[in-house]
Amino acid sequence: MDKHDDDIRKETGIFLEKRGELLKLLLSEVCDLAFFCGHDGKLRYMNEPFQKLLSNGSIGLGEPFAMLFPEKYRQKALKAVEKVLRGLRVEIELPLGDNPFALRMKPFIESGEVTGFFGVGQAAVSCGHKRESKLISSRLEELILERTAELIRTNELLLGEILEREKAEKALVEAEKKYRSMLEAVNDAIFVADASTGIIIHANSKASELVGRPLEELIGLHQTKLHSEEDAEHYKSMFRERVRIGGPFSGGIHYIRHKDGKKIPVRISSTLATVENRLIIHGIFKTLSKKTGFKNS
Q: Is 225 within 8 Å of 218 (Cβ atoms)?
């Protein structure tokens, strides 16, 4: 496969993806010929009956529409293409293979501009059946355009939803930045934990300094790991009790264990809050200065 064929197949794939599998299915199931040409008058899509009709020929996707027909009819086909690309409907009879075909072509318009044209075709029939044939062909054309319009509207709705989601995600990122800025502005250590598990989900830089651990190490750590092993069960029970009682709490002297092993006296104030159906507990750890008579153990 040469580069030209590869480019044409890629463009055809983009077209089918854009219009959706529904349109592709519709075109493949009908008995009539159905095709689509781009703004350059070249074939971008042919349904299965059309492909079977041309299976013995050398004309394929990417070729000019007029090249489908015998040489003496190509000028007639070119004029029809020029007309439909000016935004006009065209009905024309041209030979394909060994039989004449009645073709109906209609411009495809996006954002007020003609970007190509659809076509349907049937083998030319006797006068007694022309009216019925024309009605069937017209209805097929209407169905194709209706489905295409529906898919375009759906795409527009999806695009609107994507833009709204992006806007919401952007607002969430901004809110997260603002929240972290507020945490960092506080001069005390702050730990935020999931109330149901006791797992730390946020902390500020003062918290990192207090325990001598990087923030990356604190996130995901259980709150009992902030204390010495012998005190872990005590603080685990205290944490559960505060969650059970709810409301703000403050008071008492507690000890945080620094990574180097020393104990640091702190006063803890905590509050409960619900964020996106998740109960969390904020703990503010205020270090007690030596002026209060406390020394690190």
A: no
